[in-house]
Amino acid sequence: MTGINLSEWALKHRSLVIYLMLVAVVAGVLSYFRLGRNEDPAFTIRTMVVQAAWPGATAEETMKQVTERLERQLQETPHLDFLRSFTGAGLTTIFVNLEGSANARDVADTWYQVRKTIGDIRHTLPAGVVGPAFNDDFGDTFGIVYGFTSDGFTQRELRDHVEAIRSRLLGVPDVAKIELLAAQDEVIFVEFSKQELANLGVDRAALIAALQAQNVVMPSGTIQTGTERISLRVSGSFRSEQDVADINFAAGGRMLRLSDLATVRRGYADPPQPLFRINGHPAIGLAVAMRDGGDILALGRNIKQTMAMITADLPIGIEPSLVADQSVVVSKAIGEFMTSLGQAIAIILVVSFISLGIRPGLIIALAIPLTLAIVFPVMELLRIDMQRISLGALIVALALLVDDAMTTTDATLNRLALGDSKIEAATYAYRVHALAMLAGTLVTIAGFIPVGFAASAASEYTFSLFVVVAIALLASWFVAVFFAPLLGAVILVPPQQGATAPGGIFRLYRKFLIRAIRAKWLTIGGTVALFIASMLALPLVPQQFFPLSDRPELLVDLSLPQNASIRASETAAKRLDAVLTGDPDVAHWSTYVGRGAIRFYLPLNVELPNDFFTQAVVVARDVAARERLLAKLKRFLSEELPNAVSSVSPLGLGPPVGWPLQYRVSGPDVERVRDIALKVAQIVASDPSARSVNFDWMEPDRQLRIRVNQDEARLLGLSSQAISAVLNTVISGTAVTQVRDDIYLISVMARANDEQRVSLAGLRTLEVPIPGGNTVPLSQLASFEYDQEFPLIWRRNRVPTLTVRAAIPDSVLPDAVVKSLAPAIADLGKTLPPSYHVVVGGTVEESRKSQASVMAVVPMMLFVMFTVLMLQLQSFPRLLMVVSVAPLGLIGVVAALLLAGRPLGFVAILGVLALLGMISKNAVILLGQIEVERAQGKGPWEAAVDASSSRFRPIMLTAVSTVLGMIPIAPTVFWGPMAIAIMGGLLVATILTLVLLPTVYVAWFGEKEGAPAADQGRG
Fold it and tell me: 696-737, pLDDT tens digit by residue?
C-alpha cells in the first residue's frame, strides 16, 4: 500500500500510541455507562389521527359531509402512503399514514401541513361540527405504568391523590409526559320526572335558562377611587351540588326550589369513559413516557425511589401497583445480551488461543476491547442507545471484527518465521494486506447498506444494525493496522523451528485443493449445481416478517358487536377477570375497557377508544407459563364468549401489523363489499390453519327512527330542532352549566330519571312542551319505526373497505397460509367488477413492502461493492471471480435454515445480504495474496495453490470464529434466524471460496499444472 505506513508510524511513536490506547479505553468505559438504555430502537410512527364530531348526524351523513371532505383534502398530503378511516354516527376518525421513505423531519413538517390545510377548509364543514382535532403523538411509548386502587375512598378522593402523585413524578429527571388513565369525570345530575314537570306547568327550557343565568361568569365592573381599584363580585355561582339543588325560580306565579322538582346528585360520567382495571379491581392509572435519548434504567430507578417516598405518605386503603416496567425488561435484556457478548468473546478467544497460540491469541484478546472502546464513544456521539438492535449488532460485529486482527497477526507470525525482524514483520501486513483488508471491510459494510437505507419502518427499526456494524468494522481495521502491529512487536516472538509445520487439516486441504483444480470443470459444475439446488429449495424455507417476542406478556383482545355499550364490555372484562383470578401461571394483569392498552411497548398495535373493545395485558410468570396460559385463554374465549371477536397473542417484534392474516375488500358500494367479504371469509375459513375468522366491521345495528309530521308540528309551533332538543335532554341529558370545584370543572347534566330514560315505550307518551305553556305527547305528531345502519364504516383512500381477518397458530407462518389461499382468492378476483378488489394485508403485506424496500436499495449496495472491488482489483476477470463466489453463501443459508427449522425473516434477509460482503472480503484478500505470489515469479497454478494454502488458516479461523461467536444469539427469538443464516452461509461459502476461487483463477489464467509465469497471461 502506497503512502504512509500507519503500522510503521505507530511503531516509531510507541509512547503516543500507548497513550491513545489508554485514552480509547477510558473513553469507551465512560461512554458505555453513559449510553442510553432502551428495549427497542426508536422509530417514527408515521401515523396521525384526525378526528371530528358532528353530534346528531347519522353514519352516512357523517361519512359524506365530514369524512369525505376531510379525506379529499388529506389526499394532497406530502409523502402520503394511504388514508384509513372509520366513520360512525356523528364521529369520524382518519388515520393519515405516510410512506416509509419519509424521515423524521419530513414527518414533523407534514403534520404541520396537515393542520394548516385542514384549518383552511374548516369553514366548509357542516354547521355544528366539533373539531377537527389532531393527534400526532401516536407513537409515544409509556414504558412505566402504575395503577392505583382504593378501598374506602371515593373515585374523586382517589383521583385527587393520583393527580398529586402525577405532579411529583413530572419532576423526576427524564420524564417527558404522564398520562392519566380512566379518571372518570364527575357530573352533577339534575334528574326530573316528565309527568311532574308537566303537572306543575314547568317549562324545561325556563328551568335550564335559570340554571345558566345564575352560574354565568361575567364582569361586574371595577370602581376606581383616588387611591385604589375595587373589583365588584356578584354572588350566585355554584360551588357544589347543594347550591344547584337550592336554586329557586318562578313558575306559575310562585317560587319553586329545584330540589322539589328534581333529584340533584353528584355522580360520574354516564355512560362511563374508558375504564382501567388491575387484577380485577377498578383503578386509575398513571403512564410515564421517557424523553428522547433518556436512560430507561435510570428512569426506572428514579421513579421507584420517588414512588417509595410517595407510598409512605399515602393513606391506608390507596394501593399503587406497578403494571408495566420497561426498565426491568431492558435490564434483563441488556444483562442477557452482555452475557451473550461475553460468551462470544470467550469463544473467539478460545479459538484464537488454540489455533494461534498464547501470544498471538493475546493480541486478539486485546484487539477486541480496543475496538469496542472506539465503538462506544461513536455510538454515544450518534445517539445510538443500547437496545435490542444495537446490542445484537455488537455481537454480529464482534464475530467480524477479529478478521483484520487475525490477518495482521498471522502475517506477522509468518514473517517472523521467515526470519524478518519484529519491525519488518509487524509492518509487513500493512504493506501487503492493508488495502485489501480495507477494501474487504468496505465491501462487508456495503453488504449492510440495505439495512441502513431501505425506506420502510422495518428498516428504520433495524437501522442501528448498519451503523454499529459499520463503526465496528472500520474501528477493527484501524486497530489492526495501528494498534495491533505495536502489540505484535511487543508480545510476539519468532516461532520455534517446526512450530509452523503444516497440520493434518492443512495438508488434507492442500491435497483436496490440488485435486479440485485438476478436475476444475467438475468442481465448477458441482458448485453451480449446488447453487441451483439451493435456489430451488429456497421456497421450502418458511417466510416470516418479525418473530414474536420472548416477553411473558399476553395481549387479550375482546371485540363485542359494534353496537355494544361500554357496560357490556365491562361485563365481559369481569368474566375474563374471574378466569385469571387465582391462576398460578398469572403474575398480574391489567384490563383496558373501552379502549386499547396504552403504548407501553413501542411495537404495540394501539387500538383507539371504542365502547365495544376491551384489551387485557396478562403478565405470565415466565415464558413457559405464558404458553400454558395462552392455551387456557383461547379455550375460555371460544367456549364462554363465542359472540366476541377475540384473540390471544404474545407481544410482537418489529413494526405493528395487527392480525397476522388479513384480506382487504374494497369497492364503492357498501352492501356489495359486504357480500364479497363474506365470500372471502369462506375461502379463508376453508384453510385448516385459519382461526377466528372475523371482520373489522360487518353487522348493522338497530335504530329507532322518529318520523315527525311536519305539518302537525308547525300547527303546534314546533320544529324538528325543538323535538330533537327535548329528546336529547330527556334521554341522554344536556349539559346546562358547570360547577367550578377546585381544579375540576363539573358539568351539570339535566335529564329525565332512569325509568323514563331507558323506556322505549315511554317515548310515545313523552310530553313535548309547546308555546303557551302546554304540552302534547310525542305520538300525536310523530310515528315510530325501526331501521338499520352500520355503526362503523371503514374506508381506505376514500373507498369503503372491509377487512377479513384471522388468527393462525404460532407454528404456522402467515405467508404459508396466504400462498395456499392464493389460487382461490385469484379465482374470486376474476369474478369481481373492475372497481372491486381483494388485497392481501397484515403481516404478509408489510413483509413484502419491507422486503421490496430492501431490494430497491440492493442496486446501490452492488454498485458500492463493485466500485470498491474494481478500485482494489482493477481487473474485470478478477471482479467476475469475486462476484461468482459471493452468492455461494445461499447454499449454506438454505441448508442451515431448513435443518434448524428457522424462517427466513426480515432480519435474516439482512443477514443474507451482509453475507455477500463477508464472502467478498475473503475473496478480495485471497486474490490479493495470489497476486503477491505471482509477483514473486510463480505461475497461476502454483500461485493459486500457495496463496490459498497461506490464507487457509486466517480465513478459516475468521469463519470459525464468526460461526462459533454467533452461537450465543442463535437460540434467541429475534436474532436466531439471522445467526443461523450467517453461520451456515459463511461456513459453506468460506470452504467453497477456498476451493472454487483458486479453481476459477486457474481455469481463467492458466492451463498447465506447474507452468512457469512466463507462459501464462497476467489478465
Answer: 887 777 777 888 888 888 888 887 777 877 777 777 777 788
Cell 432502551 locates to: 38
Contacts of 459 (CB under 8 A, 6+ apart): 100, 450, 451, 452, 453, 850, 853, 854
Beta carbons within 8 Å of 409's beta carbon, 6+ residues apart:
356, 360, 363, 364, 484, 488, 492
Distances (CA, A) of 229 to 219, 225, 497, 849: 14, 6, 106, 69
More confident position, 281 or 461: 281
Distances (CA, A) of 255 to 236, 251, 261, 667: 17, 6, 12, 62
Beta carbons of 544 and 592 less than 8 angstroms apart: no
Cell numbers standing for residue 621: 410468570
Distance of CA 214 to the CA centre of its chain: 53
Cell of 193: 320526572
Q: Which residues contact 703 (CB under 8 A, 6 or more apart)?
A: 786, 787, 788, 789
Residues 6+ apart with CB under 8 A from 130: 52, 53, 54, 55
pTM of this structure: 0.79
In degrees, to the nearest 5, what angle opens at C-alpha 478 toward C-alphas 477 and 484? 90
Average pLDDT over residues 859-886: 85
Cβ atoms 109, 46 nearer than 8 A: no
Q: How far are the Cα atoms of 176, 700, 797 from residue 94, in angstroms, in the given order? A: 27, 21, 10
**488, 409 contact by CB (below 8 A):** yes
Q: How far apart are CA 936 and CA 1013, in angstroms?
A: 9
Range 110-129 burial, b when 16+ CB lie within 10 A, else e: bbeebeeebeeeeeebeeeb
C-alpha cell at 256: 319553586
Please confirm whether the linkage preceding 769 is cis (ω < 30° from 0). no
Q: State the Cα angle at 612 between 606 and 616, rounded to 5°.
A: 50
- Asked if 164 and 723 touch (Cβ cutoff 8 Å), the reply is no
Instruction: Measure the CA–CA gap between 593 and 610, rounded to whole angstroms.
Output: 9
Q: Examine the pLDDT at 164 and tell me if it is beyond 80.
A: yes
- Nearest alpha carbon to residue 46 among 4, 104, 1: 104
Beta-bridge partner residues of 664:
803, 839
| Residues 6 or more apart whose Cβ sits within 8 Å of residue 112 | none
Task: Tell me if 500 sits within 8 A of 357, measured CB to CB.
Answer: no
pLDDT digit string, tens, across residues 483-523? 888 888 888 777 765 444 455 677 888 888 888 888 888 98
The CA distances from residue 200 to 205, 289, 639, 762, 857, in Å, are: 14, 56, 54, 19, 80
Q: For 510-556, how does the pLDDT look when each residue is reduced to its tens digit (9 = 90+)?
A: 888 888 888 888 988 888 899 999 888 888 887 777 777 778 889 99
> Residue 582's CB: how many other CB atoms inside 10 A?
7
Instruction: Walk me through the domains of the chain, giving residue ranges and CATH numbers.
Output: 1-34+357-492 (1.20.1640.10), 46-138 (3.30.70.1430), 186-214+237-268+701-789 (3.30.2090.10), 505-540+875-1007 (1.20.1640.10)
